[in-house]
Amino acid sequence: MTILENAPTGLAEEQKVAVRSVYQEVAAEYDERIPGSGPTDEGFTQAERDFVLSKVRAGQKVLDMGCGTGRFTVPMAEAGVQVTGLDISRAMLDVTEAKLSARGLSGDLYEGDMAHLPFEDNSFDVVTSMLALMHIPLEDREAVFAEVARVLRPGGRLVIGVKNGLFEQFFKGDRFAAVDITDVEAKQLLFTKTRGGKDLTAPWYSFTPQDLNALCAASGMTVTHLRGNSTISAWLADEVLQDNGVAGVVRALEKNLGDVPPFNHLGYHILVEAVKPRR
Ligand SMILES: C[S@@+](CC[C@H](N)C(=O)[O-])C[C@H]1O[C@@H](n2cnc3c(N)ncnc32)[C@H](O)[C@@H]1O
To answer: Which of 53, 62, 123, 264 has its CA 20 to 30 A from that of 81?
Structure first.
């Protein structure tokens, strides 16, 4: 029996079944599908990784929600973090498990839904979630942030990366993606060129900075860092970015301006840290 077979029916549950089934299907090829093939993808992925790794320390207990194939779970384990990964797709978790064991690392992996975390109150120092919250049905958003606040210890931190709905209000196409393309109008992630030859879709709802501030506030957390990832390159054409001189200047500016309003609000993705008050 899968974790969703006994779940209540309704649109939110249907959406989660759709999300799970897509990731079950693409798990074995997921790592080849990201990042995209644009001139800034490598720097973009590195910036995400730097952000997450700068927010965790060896020995901390960290929950990676929607951990997928362990793109962030595994480097955190390598950095000495006590990792727990949770994902709605068993096939994605199996890839993470294989990577951890190939490197002689350990981690606790759970198949589950982030709207109902199977953990006790105050269990984690940090909860991370990279590129996964966009799959949550809209009606589950508050429940997920409340669950995060519940399982974090007082003073614990939430660290997330999401696609920026504010950027998408200006730019409707997916700016860098190669094969997994966000269809902003249809609110779907479209998986093209899969090994099975089929195009697959999963529900997808990006977040604006205002959404994130409101969701954190509603769950009693406070945003302490909001960074725009690819805050300048997202707005420039590929031909412009292919010039090494321009790309170098853009990288240097992005490093410094990614944290500064209003540029941080205009990133292609937004990276956020929020804290649960100590009491
Ligand atoms: C785009 S992948 C990101 C994986 C990984 N965090 C990364 O950055 O590569 C999204 C992941 O979120 C998981 N996911 C989606 N909805 C979920 C939910 N409600 N609860 C737990 N995991 C979920 C999917 O199964 C998938 O593995």
So the answer is: 264
The segment with the largest mean pLDDT, out of 7-16, 130-139, 173-182, is 130-139
Copy the structure tokens of residue 69: 């194939």
User: From the CB of 67, is ligand 1 less than 6 Å away?
Assistant: yes
Total tally of structural domains belonging to the chain: 1
Task: Specify the residue with its C-alpha closest to ligand 1, atom 13.
Answer: 66
Substitution site in 89, 140, 148 for ligand 1 pocket (most atoms within 8 Å of beta carbon): 89
Which pLDDT band holds residue 8 (cuts at 50, 70, 90)?
low
In this structure, the residue with its CA closest to atom 19 of ligand 1 is 113
- Residue 259's domain comprises 2-275
Question: Looking at residue 244, which CATH number applies to its domain?
Answer: 3.40.50.150
For the question of whether the overall pTM of this predicted structure is more than 0.70, the answer is yes
Average predicted confidence (pLDDT) for the chain:
93
User: Residue 152 has what pLDDT?
Assistant: 98
Phi, psi values for residue 164, rounded to 5°: -95, 110
Indicate which atom in ligand 1 lies nearest the CA of residue 70: 5
pLDDT in tens, 22-57: 999 999 999 988 866 666 777 888 999 999 999 999
